[in-house]
Amino acid sequence: TLSKISALKKLSGEWYRIGRADIAGYRAEEVAALSETEETWSIAGTTYAICIQRAEEQKVKDFCTERAVNAFETAISINPSNTTNRVNLSLCYTENPPANNPMKGVLMLVDLSKKHPENPLVLSSLGRLAIKTGQFEKAKERLEKAFSIDNKNKDVVCLLAKTYKELRIEEKAATFENMCSKLN
After folding, report:
1. CB neighbour list of residue 134: distance below 8 Å, 6 or more residues apart
2. 32 and 16 Cβ atoms separated by less than 8 Å
3. Is 79 helix (H, G, I), strand (E, B) or coil?
4. In sequence order, which residues have a C-beta less than 8 Å from that of residue 18 and are 6 or more positions away?
5. Which of 50, 79, 80, 115 is the most buried (most CB within 10 A)?
6. Which residues fall within 8 angstroms of residue 125, CB to CB, at 6 or more apart?
7. How far is CA 181 from the centre of its chain?
8. In this structure, are residues 54 and 21 in contact, taking their beta carbons and an 8 Å threshold?
9. Which of 58, 60, 47, 62 is nearest to 17 (CA)?
């Protein structure tokens, strides 16, 4: 089984390298099914989540969404206390919302922010969504809170640079752009 897992990991990596996150995710899911660990299910879910972001065809997006949701739900069932898997699950729904519940992912994130108000990943995810929808004041509020908790978080720093720029807070935008480039 270990040699099969090793071979599947290599296959997944090669498919990912050539830009086929859908097939890479499938191979990663096979690894997870054999390994049965939270980490391997999370990797499979994350690989499928990348597919959701990159896919141009809706049927590929839908395939990857269904598989990502399953993978993250399995990871959550193994370790319910890991907030990262819950955030990633909600982001799958924000990337490709179900037609019958287009706000599902956002509502899941809002619920997570109530349960984990000091979690930088939750706050930065909500901040990123606020930027995406042009709600820059809301993004600023969430991202500043995330930054106050974790001022070394590259995503938060770079998102704050973008937010300050959009809000025309030039001095802070320049400061955070500089910090962002240093962290990259």
Report:
1. none
2. no
3. coil
4. none
5. 50
6. 87, 90, 91, 109
7. 21
8. yes
9. 47
Rounded CA gap, 102 and 25, in Å? 24
Tokens in use for 23? 């097939």
Q: How far is C-alpha 49 from the geometric centre of its chain's CA atoms?
A: 7
Record the tokens describing residue 34, joined without a space: 């054999």
Other CB atoms closer than 10 Å to residue 13's CB: what's the count? 14
What token pair was written down for 118? 């000091």
182's tokens:
């240093």
